User: Which sequence fits this backbone?
């Protein structure tokens, strides 16, 4: 029997419903879709589930780069759990992680009224963006903390060159009113059958014109698919 895969919506520090859901069933893999905003190292927070046999994977959300402690409690405390910009095999599925959010200073691939056209990316790579920054904006020899979760076009190039069954993203695809068509296109390029996202704290199911299923997750909502 294949171990379960459980997806969890943005905890925003409230992991109680997620831990309760984990401990109510046999262990598998827990995938957090961003905005943990951890006040302690993630492995410490998830200790009851980890001790019960669960494994944890996560991607960054925008609230995970609002303070050094929130960032370090993920990136430094649990680097092995970072699903961001990787494709990993989980329970026989290839799962891709797209962390973070779009920001106009780098790339915002959606027209916001009253604009009717989409601006091209201002920077394609992190290296190009870092080279444009004054010295006082450099943080830990790299991008500013605020931009450690910013999505760059190079992220799409990296993931689109691979094959995956599930795309886990913080941002939403076009199925949500505030979603992005480019996420639809990324899922199609990878051959995904399912997109799971957070960020908007809305629980819903949808199907894209391409036939790809979408599941949006509410705050700290735990969801285990009954089909793939």
Assistant:
């Amino acid at each position: 029997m294949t171990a379960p895969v459980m997806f969890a919506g943005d905890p925003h520090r409230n992991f109680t419903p997620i831990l309760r859901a984990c401990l109510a069933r046999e262990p598998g893999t827990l995938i957090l879709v961003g905005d943990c905003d951890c006040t302690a190292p993630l492995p410490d927070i998830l200790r009851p589930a980890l001790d019960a046999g669960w494994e944890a994977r996560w991607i960054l959300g925008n609230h995970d780069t609002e303070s050094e402690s929130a960032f370090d409690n993920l990136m430094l405390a649990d680097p092995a759990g970072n699903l961001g910009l990787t494709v990993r095999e989980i329970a026989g599925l290839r799962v891709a992680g797209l962390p973070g959010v779009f920001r106009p200073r780098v790339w915002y691939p959606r027209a916001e009224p009253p604009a009717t056209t989409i601006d091209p990316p201002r920077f394609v790579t992190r290296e190009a963006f870092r080279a444009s920054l004054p010295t006082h904006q450099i943080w830990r020899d790299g991008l500013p903390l605020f931009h450690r979760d910013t999505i760059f076009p190079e992220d799409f190039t990296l993931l689109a060159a691979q094959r995956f069954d599930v795309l886990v993203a913080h941002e939403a695809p076009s199925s949500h009113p505030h979603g992005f068509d480019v996420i639809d296109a990324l899922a199609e390029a990878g051959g995904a059958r399912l997109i799971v996202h957070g960020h908007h704290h809305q629980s819903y199911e949808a199907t894209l014109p391409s036939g790809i299923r979408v599941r949006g997750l509410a705050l700290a909502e735990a969801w285990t698919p009954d089909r793939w």
About this structure: Strands lie at 5-8, 29-32, 55-58, 87-90, 93-98, 166-169, 194-197, 204-207, 213-216, 222-223. The CA atoms of residues 2 and 91 lie 6 Å apart. The chain has a mean pLDDT of 96.
